[in-house]
């Protein structure tokens, strides 16, 4: 007999134990521990729909919304969301209670399915789990499947199959082999009732789909302009076109991106920081595109303590200035011919998934012409500045007739205080299933290394075929800390970053180690370790770092 439906105040009730799964699906000890979801969902009723399919579609859309909370944190992995719901009354599919939600916070952290099942507890037994994407963040990791089996889930609705060829269909087959009904949109469920939900599932992982389809990162062009279409006054002064609330939204966009790109004029006139300040979590890389390197000697972007900076330039430009930037910790990359297409190919090779362009009109036009811009976010302020020579957000595109204008797809309008945000895609989201992307399209840690080199195995990212060997894989290790006492480190990356500061007799070093210990994900541990290493180089134990790095080089070559 199934348990009674949860009351509205269910949130906060600890889950009851669930029956053990088959031995091959049992979760490792560390994943069976109670780990609260980053944002737990209260049990809430889902309004009745006209049909069971529309009801499923509503809950699948909700799973996509939950998955969106991980945007910018899981890159280059997909965004995963799981919603568990059960009928309000037995044999009634007209209305359901959501009893559990979860999303993948970052690679190396508990999966969405585990978090949702833990929150639902005994109420998950006999319920339906809605997944925006087929499970599978790490090859060979059955935690997501085991979580649903152990929880007693009776049915799973999947929006999209996994985009990676070596993972696609594996979880679906494993769930079905356990007697769980699995319905995939477009295969087991008709697409038409799920059009809106399917669109949500595509949108939440649009960066991954664009990257797979075009071999470049997903790129968003963002700009703020006045009602008469100006991004600055004739003098070049641009502070501020939009209001404070809109600028806060820009910080959010940066926090969802792997890199932010500007041109030389932006550095010269605005001296931006390009950080996702006021937004916790991911900090994007900052990229400056400048052919001549006619850039100021001092600029906020040359301070790499807050975020990493890359300057892309033409080969041979101002070698003396390149050396000065390198001394500041800025990476300089030379191109035979600097253009947006080649820069995006370079970003693709570095593993970037999503890029935000905050450049001026000339570079924006060049990027659009190169077909590397996929979406536009335009903040329109209710003001007029005028000026024949005042800059506009997009420069010359060579269009002589209005019929040549690029039309937005899936346009949305949002009022942000006094401003209006108009956004839309200029290239449709590619629905590449079931052929996206193959393993050979995942870049290795070294772009110059052939993926077909037989002496090398790929495990830099946890979704690689041997991803369980990655520093970021969710496998804890029991190793000594700075005091010599044994401590269970969440991941190898936590251990590695902390041990940059082990053996240094300084209270600040011990504080940094403790900060890394408490990092919620291996990405955060890496960011803390790298940042503190730049801020306090005198606290770094070079012998330990060198020894560990040499060991990791051997691992990357598959020789240890």
UniProtKB/TrEMBL annotation:
InterPro entries: CMP_dCMP_dom, Cytidine_deaminase-like, DHFR-like_dom_sf, Eubact_RibD, NADAR, RibD_C, RibDG_C, Riboflavin_Biosynth_HTPR. Its EC number is 1.1.1.193. GO terms for cellular component: chloroplast. Residues 54-183 form the CMP/dCMP-type deaminase domain. It comes from the Eukaryota. NCBIfam families: eubact_ribD, ribD_Cterm. PANTHER family: 2,5-DIAMINO-6-RIBOSYLAMINO-4(3H)-PYRIMIDINONE 5'-PHOSPHATE REDUCTASE, DIHYDROFOLATE REDUCTASE FAMILY PROTEIN (AFU_ORTHOLOGUE AFUA_8G06820). This is Riboflavin biosynthesis protein PYRR, chloroplastic. It comes from Setaria italica. The lineage of its organism: Eukaryota, Viridiplantae, Streptophyta, Embryophyta, Tracheophyta.
